[in-house]
Design goal:
Elements (H helix, E strand, L loop, with lengths): L5 E5 L3 H7 L4 H21 L4 E8 L7 H24 L2 E6 L7 H13 L6 E9 L1 H14 L6 H6 L11 E4 L18 E4 L9 H12 L14
Helix pairs in contact: 1-2, 2-3, 3-4
Length: 230
């Protein structure tokens, strides 16, 4: 069986892990960045073409301002420190979501990294930033209305943030929480969902590989019978 083309991840548990270690939620977020780098490497190793990471949701604005600003600083520093590796490894960065409310400096940096990595083709990292699935569907419908297009599945797909990206075969959520929290609702109707008890900073390459292995044993019928992915 071929490897999945697209894996999506809800990277949950950073803050709780930080508290568990008798430190801070921000400490957990910082450690979570190390896991991000490991899992990107694992995705490349498994020849996955698209990896979508739920970085900042539309609901995350409800968190304390100090934590929100720290998350922005982490993203800012990640781009600064990793841009050379990103280019060297031919990683393409794409944002899904609405970054208009983000600080101007961060917005410029995000747009620049999208531009300079546009032609890279080893793996595409979709960074879900200020992303919410309901918001995305409304965004698509508004575009259809504005352009006087018929509302149907094909046109909605074309106008989502994920236009041109195949639906994920796998969705992983760490942090021992069994819900998808407004993430890729439209795209996940036939996605295999794996809920992991481990917090995101504890999640390893081996955990990732085990999920890929489990996925490869699943008969994917897509509503029919005796149909298996090849």
């Amino acid at each position: 069986m071929n490897p999945p083309k697209h894996v999506a991840i809800i990277m949950d548990g950073n803050g709780r892990w930080g508290i568990k270690k008798k430190k801070t939620r921000n400490y957990g977020h910082k450690k979570g960045i190390e896991t991000v780098k490991k899992i990107i490497s694992a995705g490349i190793q498994k020849k996955i073409k698209y990896l979508t990471l739920f970085v900042f949701s539309t609901e995350n604005w409800r968190r304390p301002l100090e934590e929100v600003n720290y998350l922005f600083s982490l993203l800012n520093n990640f781009i600064d420190k990793e841009i050379n590796n990103i280019l060297k490894k031919k990683i393409k960065i794409k944002v899904i979501g609405d970054i208009k409310p983000f600080p101007n400096q961060l917005k410029k940096k995000i747009k620049k990294v999208e531009k300079v990595t546009h032609s890279n083709n080893k793996i595409q990292i979709n960074m879900a930033l200020n992303y919410g699935s309901r918001q995305e569907i409304i965004y698509s419908l508004k575009k259809l209305k504005k352009n006087h297009l018929q509302i149907n599945e094909k046109n909605i797909n074309k106008n989502l943030y994920t236009s041109g990206i195949p639906d994920p075969e796998i969705l992983i959520r760490t942090g021992n929480t069994n819900r998808i929290s407004n993430f890729l609702i439209w795209q996940s109707i036939y996605t295999e969902i794996f809920f992991e008890k481990k917090m995101w900073p504890e999640f390893t390459k081996n955990d990732f590989f085990k999920i890929i292995k489990k996925y490869n044993k699943i008969d994917r019928n897509f509503g029919g019978l005796n149909v298996r992915s090849k």
